[in-house]
Amino acid sequence: MKNNLSELIAGETAIIKEISINGLNRRRFFDLGFIPGTEVTVAFESPLGDPTAYNIRGTVIALRREEAEKILIEVIRESEQVEKS
Question: For position 2, what pLDDT does the model report?
Answer without folding.
Answer: 67
